[in-house]
Write a structure and sequence with these properties.
mainly alpha, 24 helices, 0% strand
Amino acid sequence: MKKKRHALVFLLMFVLASCGKHYTHHPKILAAEKSLASSPDSSLRLLLSVSSPQALPEADRAAWCLHYAHAMYKLQKEDSVPNSLIDIAIKYYDGSSLYKYSGTAYYLKGCYAESHKKPRKALLYYKKALLLLENTQEYDIRGLTALNIVYLYYGQKVIREAESYAFEAKKDFELSGNKNYQMYCYQMIGEFYYNSYSPTDSILRYYEKAGRLAKVLGNETMYYFIQGLKGSTLYASQPQKAIRLLKEAYNHDQANQEIHNIFLSYCYAQIQKPDSAAYYLRLVENSKSRIQDSLAYYASRSYINATRKNYQQAYEDAKKAYILNEKNFQGKIKDQLYRIDKQYDLTEKQKENLELKIANQGKVLLISATVILLLGACIFSIIIRNKSKRRQAELETKNKKLQYEMEVKKLEHQKKHALLLAKLKQKLELTLEFRRMQNRPAAIEKQEEIMDRIIRTVILHKGEWDYYVKEVDELSGNKLQEMQEKHKDVTKSDLIVIALLYLGINIGDSCLLLGMAKETMYTRRKRIRKHLEIADETELEEWLAATLQTAH
């Protein structure tokens, strides 16, 4: 039993140790957390109103540091926040079950590392944050973490990894309902598809989603930028539609006018409008930008030179366009092969992960079942033990109560016995003296003296025996009455003799009290034994003592 109890205590200590850390209950910090997403400046004011945050209890201080760093980052003041504040939050939440706050702390650590031009460290922190936030419902933080990884990978030209995390970010923002970040994810995935030579429908589907959200949110800059992207996607297959979209973007998206010029020139060349094609191409050449080396640029210039009968230059431009097109085609084939291999690897990895997950779930279930069984067994044994103790205590109490009642009855019996003897004592003494005087005549003066004493005290006479028999009957628990009812031959005279024997008066004194010869007394005793059906070898006094004492 002790071993089981120790095992239970150890198990509980282990569970408590793993779940011991708790989140803050500080009202100002909780209010600051609530307003952090919508109003970081209000959140910051609330946090700054907390007096002596460094002296707060550990849980409160960790939460204060976390939300203060988060508010400062949202307000683009991260340079004024020391790294040690985030480290305090990370140290406290590490190893706890507070995954939301632990993951948020690592997300902020990544943001601060990125702002200090440490992309590798930032990537590590972001990935750690995603692991911690995986089973939480913090979709916005998860989405932002994945989106930051996208930008880091894109900046390092690791396009395929960036694309993978873009889809993760999209999924999280869809779950959180954050339309603004959904818009950026759709636009980014559309560009990834465009750069990887994916089907036009797939590219346009994401651009359309991004454009609709930009319109709903009233973000005109983003809306016209996406219209330009859609025009750039359709320039080869649907030049008329591409011209309409590119011109719409051209008038509002000044930052990307050079790209629009190239595609407009190519589209006009496709629909055989050399003057318009030459106009936009001239704008491109005057800008002297590096994008003049694109396929669309050379294709458009080849067409314009051909219309001007400058066939040699048209041939050179067409050759360059062909080489670029071939290069693009080879890139497309290579990318498709990579995607097929990647999809296969991903399928195999998912299969391995699923098998591992099932195995881990089996282990978790087994451990959980073992823990539950141990706890159940310990609790059951404790309940049984408590019930046994309770029964034992009840039995002991009952026995003590019974002993107490028996002692009380015994004392009452002794008291009644003594009282009855006290009542009889004086009369017994005088009666005995009177009977002796009768048997041995004394002087007349002496006889007169004795008679006077007897008369003054009132000697015990025959009529009083009923009273004393009744007292003895009550003292024995009505056993005399039961005896007479059971044995009809027992007379009142027999009951008087039985009462005297019960009171412990010997045969000689009993004979004197009753005025009876000893032979008569022996005869009476023999008759009593017969009426009560007492065996010959049993002493009358012992039988009466045992029988009349059973009431006590």
